[in-house]
Write a structure and sequence with these properties.
Elements: H1 2-13, E1 31-34, H2 36-39, H3 45-57, H4 60-63, E2 67-69, E3 75-78, E4 84-86, H5 94-104, E5 108-114, H6 130-140, E6 144-148, H7 156-172, E7 178-181, E8 200-202, H8 221-226, E9 240-242, H9 268-280, E10 285-287, H10 296-302, H11 305-311, E11 320-325, E12 328-334, E13 340-346, E14 352-357, E15 368-372, E16 377-379, E17 384-389, E18 394-401, H12 404-411
Parallel strand pairs: 1-2, 1-10, 2-5, 5-6, 6-7, 7-8, 8-9
Antiparallel strand pairs: 3-4, 11-12, 12-13, 13-18, 14-17, 15-16, 15-18
Helix pairs in contact: 3-5, 6-7, 9-10, 9-11
Length: 412
């Protein structure tokens, strides 16, 4: 009944009432770095500047990572005019100066707030001050707002109204600001978040730096991944399902994601699979490791332009499960120009062999070339894919449709 009410409300208000989606701010999923898991309440101006510098120096900016996102704890309070101000000790020069610095690097800056009076961390939220806060964000030069839902009513009707109020307020500023809705998927935001002005919406709980937590309170990478089943139809340009942050490269460093050391992080193979699966899902690629000191393997993964191209493909299709066979899960993602991405994923803790025929198993009928992105090689045989996968490992193929002249030449 509650979703019927929201559907009627959306039809009454009209999709055009919150026109921020028409600004084409998120034609592909956003990419960047978020402060939360690594530093939490220790976030400050210096760390953010250093991360911006690192994005540039490591080549991540050139690979598409463009947002520096400040999560919870940055707020100091409100002044006598009800304007937000940052914590004066950690942001002594204010947010506008920080934004100018980030912009000077060719990057964009995001902030965090909440649809309640207090954020999840207990600092000042935006409820009741949406218009003045949106204008403040615009004047500071903010490019992205993550909007949480702690300390707010549980019902979906109120959530839609509160999110739409901020979406409209951001749109009214005239500044292009991506609106990231973060209510953890409890109220099925994929059904209404775009109508509230959202460019992306969380589809599950906060991800932890663990492969699988087996704990209803704390969600591991596999719990988050499995929660995406059935949601592909709701995702696309300017409106993305968001399965939360990438744990890649944290190795237990994150204060929140590791629960202060309870989780020791994932293996290099698991991080590679994590990144590949998020690319198949056309998910926002938001990391929160310390990019100032990441190792060569992590750098190589995050700079894998072929995987990133699958995530950032302009067709904007989210990958979906084609079939499961024993411990193997096969995903398929449609790409621009009739290309396809195929991911073969070993969910088990054992080595598993695979051998799939392109036509019979993968349901691909046209002649093609096969590019093994995971192993950086091209397959001469375009009729089958085979190999073996280590525990929790995956392999990603890009299937390219052959033009007739190329097909003729390939037969010679």
């Amino acid at each position: 009944m509650k979703y019927i009410f929201v559907s009627i409300l959306i039809l009454f208000i009209g999709f055009g009432a919150s026109a921020q989606e028409n600004l084409n701010l998120a034609l592909t999923p956003p990419m960047g770095w978020n402060s939360w898991n690594l530093v939490e309440k220790e976030v400050d101006e210096q760390i953010l500047k250093e991360m911006a510098d690192a994005l540039v120096m490591t080549g991540m900016k050139d690979a598409g990572f463009q947002y520096i996102l400040v999560d919870d704890y940055w707020v100091g309070g409100r002044d006598s005019q009800n304007n937000l101000f940052p914590d004066p000790n950690r942001f002594p020069n204010g947010i506008k100066v920080l934004a100018d610095y980030i912009h000077s690097k060719g990057l964009k800056l995001g902030l965090y707030s909440d649809a309640g009076s207090l954020t999840c961390a207990g600092v000042t939220g935006s409820y009741g001050f949406e218009t003045i806060d949106a204008q403040t964000f615009a004047e500071w030069g903010i490019d992205y707002l993550k909007y949480d839902y702690c300390n707010a009513p549980e019902d979906v009707e109120t959530a839609f109204i509160r999110y739409k109020k901020m979406g409209d307020a951001l749109n009214a500023t005239g500044r292009p600001i991506i609106f990231a809705i973060c209510e953890w998927g409890h109220r099925k935001p994929w059904l209404w978040a775009k109508a509230a002005g959202g460019h992306l919406w969380r589809t599950g709980g906060d991800s932890r730096d663990v492969w699988q937590s087996n704990n209803q309170t704390y969600t591991g990478i596999m719990e988050i991944f499995d929660a995406q089943e059935g949601l592909a139809q709701y995702s696309g340009p300017n409106g993305w399902n968001d399965p939360d942050l990438l744990m890649v490269g944290l190795y237990g460093q994150g204060k929140s994601s590791s629960l202060n050391g309870r989780y020791k992080g994932c293996t290099a193979i698991e991080y590679r699979t994590h990144f590949a699966l998020w690319c198949m899902l056309a998910a926002p690629l938001i990391v929160n490791l310390d990019i100032r000191s990441m190792d060569t393997e992590t750098s190589g993964l995050l700079l894998n332009k072929e995987l990133i191209a699958i995530d950032q493909d302009k067709l904007g299709k989210q990958g979906y499960t084609l079939f499961r066979k024993g411990n193997l899960q096969v995903l398929k993602k449609e790409l621009e120009g009739d290309d396809l991405a195929i991911c073969v994923f070993n969910r088990s803790s054992e080595v598993v062999p695979f051998d799939f025929k392109v036509q019979k198993d993968l349901k691909v009928w046209f002649p093609l070339q096969i590019r093994d992105i995971s192993n950086n090689k091209d397959w001469k045989n375009g009729k089958r894919v085979f190999g073996e996968l280590k525990p929790h490992e995956c392999v990603v193929y890009r299937l390219h449709k052959l033009e007739q002249n190329k097909l003729t030449n390939s037969k010679k």
